[in-house]
Amino acid sequence: MTDWKRKVLAAIDEQQDELLALCSKLIQFPSENPPGDSREISAFIIDYLHQAGIATSIYPATETMLNLVSTLSATAEDRISKKLIFCGHTDVVPAGDRSRWDFDPFSGAIEDGYLLGRGASDMKAGLAGQIFAMTLLAKLGVPLRGDLALLVVPDEETGGHLGVPWVLERGLVTGTAAVIAEPSGPQNPTIGQKGSCWFEFTVEGTPGHGSLSPIVGDSAIVKAAKGIEALQRLWDIKPDIPEEVKEIIRISQEYVKESEQDGSLAWQVFDHVTVNIGTIQGGTKVNVVADRCTIQVDSRVPFGVDYRDVLDRARSLLLEAGIESEVKGFGFQGNANWTSSEEQIVTDLVSSISEVSSKEAYGVLQWASSDARHFRTHRIPVLQYGPAELSTIHNFNEKAPVWQIIQCAKVYALTALKYLEVEVEAGVNTVKNQA
């Protein structure tokens, strides 16, 4: 009788240095997006998987943006029709001003219990954990009854159009469930996300000599400022929250209050439309009255509000402010979405967290958006779980705790064993039934 659960978890403990080395290596590839070029990091991942006997199919969305699909096929005679997808992205947001980092953002160094560098939390440590878990299952020869796929995408940070949706729409990978290695709390995978409504509008003005303003000319920037102030009232939209998500919203609010993520007031965003004025581009010269100003807005949409209604309300608010302008949606567009906490992949991963950590675990909502929405569009139950120092995501000095990296790798492996099950030996139940 082989106790695969014990054997796999012990192997991760024994080989954790190899796992951390893989994390460091992925960070050393400066896969910033923009500009977006995944060729070098993809070549490394393909070779790493190949050494474990796992082949990879390459699907280029562009010359420089490569989607990778690798599959560890079931080896058990009593196969089942389940297929679990591990998913992660290789692109990271730009490091920005290097002088504001306390360390090289692409060093991948490990110091004082942290993995350091751009992408440590979002999300190369999580991706490394999935890659490591998959190769470990292959090397150990675990007789899985279902298939395990790894989907590595090059485009998530700028909208993701060349990544997960590009692959799913073409049927290049299919599955019955998915786990995305996006950053989360160590005990709290995210099982749902708010919707998104990115939009922009351009205000026209009349140029004139700056020395005569406001007597001469009509500043587009001043008019745009009135529009910006008016758009703050999007927060006041009242959601008609469906009964089935009221409880998970309450749980998520309490979770944030207790953990005080991003300040103790962040719990309020779960049932409100948020408004971030992301960019302002206007004017031609300091001494010229601005003839044009373009504003880009990032709005996140709660359950019970349609993102198209947010666009309509934005148009109304601008008109009330005296601004006649076309409101154009772009980038992230979509409604809030979630995976029920009763789905098997959710219960399997949550129970795996509790088993590995010996602490309570439960799913919560995320106030941002992610690739998870694309899986749900294709009716694939999905949730997110990954190591992170949440305050450093998209920030200078990004890092991730080593202990979380190891815990997540164990959770990925154990979830695969539970969801896909292991071939029944004579007189022995599957890993799933043992757990």
TrEMBL record:
<dbReference type="InterPro" id="IPR036264">
    <property type="entry name" value="Bact_exopeptidase_dim_dom"/>
</dbReference>
<keyword id="KW-0862">Zinc</keyword>
<dbReference type="GO" id="GO:0046872">
    <property type="term" value="F:metal ion binding"/>
</dbReference>
<comment type="similarity">
    <text>Belongs to the peptidase M20A family.</text>
</comment>
<dbReference type="InterPro" id="IPR050072">
    <property type="entry name" value="Peptidase_M20A"/>
</dbReference>
<dbReference type="GO" id="GO:0009014">
    <property type="term" value="F:succinyl-diaminopimelate desuccinylase activity"/>
</dbReference>
<keyword id="KW-0479">Metal-binding</keyword>
<dbReference type="InterPro" id="IPR001261">
    <property type="entry name" value="ArgE/DapE_CS"/>
</dbReference>
<feature type="domain" description="Peptidase M20 dimerisation">
    <location>
        <begin position="191"/>
        <end position="321"/>
    </location>
</feature>
<comment type="pathway">
    <text>Amino-acid biosynthesis; L-lysine biosynthesis via DAP pathway; LL-2,6-diaminopimelate from (S)-tetrahydrodipicolinate (succinylase route): step 3/3.</text>
</comment>
<dbReference type="Pfam" id="PF07687">
    <property type="entry name" value="M20_dimer"/>
</dbReference>
<dbReference type="InterPro" id="IPR010182">
    <property type="entry name" value="ArgE/DapE"/>
</dbReference>
<keyword id="KW-0378">Hydrolase</keyword>
<dbReference type="InterPro" id="IPR002933">
    <property type="entry name" value="Peptidase_M20"/>
</dbReference>
<protein>
    <recommendedName>
        <fullName>Probable succinyl-diaminopimelate desuccinylase</fullName>
        <ecNumber>3.5.1.18</ecNumber>
    </recommendedName>
</protein>
<dbReference type="InterPro" id="IPR011650">
    <property type="entry name" value="Peptidase_M20_dimer"/>
</dbReference>
<dbReference type="Pfam" id="PF01546">
    <property type="entry name" value="Peptidase_M20"/>
</dbReference>
<keyword id="KW-0170">Cobalt</keyword>
